[in-house]
Amino acid sequence: MSDQPRYDPLASxxxxxxxxxxxxxxxxxxxxxxxxxxxxxxxxxxxxMALLQHGRERFxxxxxPCHGLSGDGRGMIxxxxxPSPPTYHQDALLQVSNRHIYDVITHGYGVMYSYADRVPPxxxxxxxxxxxxxxxxxxxxxxxxxxxxxxxxxxxxxx
Length: 159
Known about the structure:
Elements: H1 49-62, H2 64-67, H3 76-79, H4 91-95, H5 98-107, H6 121-139, H7 147-158
Helix pairs in contact: 1-6, 5-6
């Protein structure tokens, strides 16, 4: 066993018809770490309070150190001198697709590195839903609120 025959890298080999010792993967081979499931273009789960709470939990752990708890880009490490990420409340990020946010979490963007190995796909979608809720929390129109909430706000404004 300590004296097994082997080829040096890129050495020629009479054993194979093409004469090369370095073999190409068999056609159709899938990498062990490849994500072979197609990624949906929008949030695949039903958006409810459980999903938003899970998204908030994951956001607080993975995203808030840079993006801040409200998504304003002033997280704790930014306060310690690291580069500030963009606020989720700017017009450009209000207009991007849900898939764009998911892809940024997956692949990184600018100085943000990929979270693909830290955050599973289902959790990434939960974070996307929560980011949208954060954005809505800062940009909701009074007319879009439920009647009871709108009346409560209008009542407190007149007092």
